[in-house]
């Protein structure tokens, strides 16, 4: 699963490892 969350602060980090990768930005 790939979820994207861009809050506009310019910091995009991928957290995942169990097949669930989410971008918190």
From TrEMBL:
Domain of life from the UniProt record: Bacteria
Bias kind Acidic residues: ranges: 1-12
Database matches in Pfam families: HemolysinCabind (PF00353)
Region spans: Disordered: 1-25
Signal sequence, start to end: none
GO MF term list: calcium ion binding
Protein's name according to its UniProt entry: Hemolysin-type calcium-binding repeat (2 copies)
Species of origin: Snodgrassella alvi SCGC AB-598-J21
């Amino acid at each position: 699963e790939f979820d994207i969350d861009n809050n506009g602060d310019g910091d995009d980090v991928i957290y995942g490892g169990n097949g669930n990768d989410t971008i918190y930005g």
